[in-house]
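Quick start: read one record
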Amino acid sequence: MLVSLLASWLHFEQRVAQGTSLAIIMPVALFGALTYTWQGLTGRFAFDSTLALSIIPGLAIPSLFGVVVGATWMSALPAAQLRRAFGIFLFAISLSMLAKDVVSLGAVASGPVTIPLIFWVLLGFITGCFSGFLGIGGAMVIIPFMSLGAGLPQHMTQGVTLAVVTITTVVGAATHHRLGNIDAQAFRSIAPTATVAVVLASLVAGAIDGFWLTKICGLALAYFAVRFTFPPAGMRSPSPRVDPAAGFYQI
């Protein structure tokens, strides 16, 4: 979403929009993850710090490889059809999240979570591939699979996802900085406000019951499903250049 806003509202060249977006998201994700962690450690919601520390590397490292693979394959595949297929996939995921705890669906969040490391490695790699293919935000893949597949509490899922985003944006932002693709003035103007906003949003989310937070996430995924399946006329032609370092964060 941020890339689209920078390109359409501020008329940034696509590469600068991608690089500046990464730079802005880096502190936003970091402070969002820290806020979720603080709330979890102080008992506002269920949060297993040991489990979180074991999951984060398993997701972040493979995603870096996956995004390169996805971006490489994208040049040989029909991007419009892939976007539409991913939109349909998001519809199914959003419906699953909206139905969770209403009907018997997905893993149960109670009790200890014992998920093999290979699950996190494959999830990270697949997320990176989707990101490289479509230029999407990895959270749209990570959050539902962690919530539905692994049965992690929604609050912890969102905190871990922000931590993964923090790690990988450092790599992407550093790459764009070397290429001169970051608008320093836009970063200084937007990043502080966005960081404050994510802290406040994380505090609000921490006060919302996990059931309703899952439903809000499901509605957000439904919105993006519509955007991918039925893109506006001005967004139907993908950018001719997809940067593997940036693809993970374009929403």
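The chain has nine helices and no strands.
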